[in-house]
Amino acid sequence: MPRSNNAVASRTRRKKVLKMAKGYFGARKNVWTVAKNAVEKGLLYAYSGRKQRKRQFRSLWIMRINAGAREHGMSYSTLMGALSKKGIELNRKVLADLAMNHPDAFKAVVDQAK
Asked: Is pTM beyond 0.85 here?
């Protein structure tokens, strides 16, 4: 019985990976074995990056809230503690937006917390 190698599916698979490697530097864009490794690594970075983006945004919001709170004589932690005691349920994303773009509204929130 003759040997079967399923060239159509193999070529399709390779073309898919090489298409994903488009824009890479040097052999990473056109040599199959190098491109395959580069694409796999890139997909791993993309997966972990989607998780890191959430952490980075939370960190950014906290920095902005802290800066806004310190303008009104409070630290971030005391502000968040006071907000939770008063039952004001604004998330960090909204508070950071208020601190950056609507300082008067943020001042009202801080005064409510005090």
From this structure: no
Q: What is the pLDDT of residues 10-67, one digit of tens each?
A: 999 999 999 999 999 999 999 999 999 999 999 999 999 999 999 999 999 999 999 9
68 domain residue, yes or no? yes
We report the CATH number of the domain holding residue 79 as 1.10.1900.20
- DSSP-assigned letter for residue 26: G
Range of 90's domain? 51-114
User: Is residue 92 within 8 Å of residue 106, measured between CB atoms?
Assistant: no
Give the alpha-carbon dihedral of 105, 106, 112, 114, to 10 degrees.
Answer: -150
d(CA 108, CA 114): 10
Angle made by CA atoms 103, 109, 111, in degrees to the nearest 5: 100
DSSP H helices, 2-102, are 7-20, 32-71, 76-86, 92-101
